[in-house]
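As noted in the main text, all predictions were made from sequence alone. Below is one such record, for Di-and tricarboxylate transporter.
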Amino acid sequence: MKHKKSIAGIIGIILGVVIAFLIPTPDGLTHAGMIVLASLVTANIFWIFNVIPSFATGLLMLSSWVALGAVKFEVSFAIFSSTTMWIIIGGLGLGAAATKTGLIKRIALKIMTYFPANFRGQTLALFTAGTIVAPMIPSAHPKAAMSTPIAKGISNALGYKEHDKGSSGIFLAAMWGFFVTEASFLSATAQNYAFKGLIPASAQKVLSWGNWFVMMIPWTIIILVGGYFLLKLLFKPKDDKPISKEFISKQLTELGPMSRDEKITAAVILVSIIFWILESAVNIPAAVTALIGVSVLVACKVLTPDDFKNRLSWSTIIFIGTVMALGNVMQSAGLTTWLRTVLQPVISPIIGNIYITVIALPIIIYLCKFVVVSLISTGTLITIGLLPFFSTMSFSPAIIAIIVTTSVNVWLLSYMNAPFLTGGAAVNDSMVSRSAMAKSSIGYMLINIVGLLVCVPLWQVMGIA
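Prediction:
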């Protein structure tokens, strides 16, 4: 429909006005809570239909709370002075340097030289390279844009035709390794920090870089092993004999010797990851580590002011900040208490048992993805819906952030996953078929639930489940 965005925008504004000013305030809810609820309804309609850019919708939402007297400015915009926002900025800066210098491409290609040049070998190579690279770049789109052209070169060298089984499998191996494994590391994507920022401060402390990694070890193993056999079952060509790895060696030769900027970037990222792992021991916040790392890269002229302007997605940073503000504001306006009462009959059975939660919640998220396109928006909506129940859960809300992170990454239909669109565009949509996308996504959806179930005993040992 030609005017779909405009119609959705008008409906969203009308609903917001009706909720805020025309509907009587229910018992147990203040007028400030009604304003926050109204703005949330309007914002979600704007996000779902992409009426205006997502970050602009978020800024309007925060501003409306202040303009209409729901909360003060310091409360509405408090998230922008938090450590979470600064680690996102610092992490994206480190990732920009790794991409700019060619370090990430060199690491990926070097790893591939150690594996046979056939479907099975290069699938394992892409899985391994992606998993190693994942925590270094906290943004899915650069990794998708960088990894799929490498996969295209592999596919061509192996003689696969466009959109056939082999080509589709190699493309999906690249996305599986470089994108799906983002859930294994806190620093692998900015959305991990966004979901972490929505849960209570006490639960956020549980999700340090090291704890997140440990919590996700069983899931990571299941995802990698299950993913490898899934792609092998669905897409492995009949003739899978190894060929020469000349195409990989050629690309490495074209990169030349490791440059000064690559060496500096590698050292800074390695030190940063070590300090993130030892955050509680050294008592240096992860955000400070990231910002020091970026400052070193600037001082060494690896990054320039233009890089900060052009290589960091500031619209994404602002959008993440606006959605993270929802948690504190909803509590401040009394909306969480009211929602807990209203939603308790529906939510309580889902969160009453950890095993039921890790099965039912992913399925709910999968269904939401048919309507809400944005990964961050989907995760935000689900987390906000559960926010009133965090204090009554028998397990840590940190687990909710983990489940949301792993479950929003589905690609059953092409519009559901923007990074997959980026990866496809990087190779002119010449590799993977739509049916291959759907089959692999269904496989991931099932493997994800199995992986989460396997994590539960570990979470119980850790005292968070």
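The CA atoms of residues 331 and 337 lie 8 Å apart. The radius of gyration is 22 Å. These features were considered when defining construct boundaries for the mutagenesis experiments described in Section 2.9.
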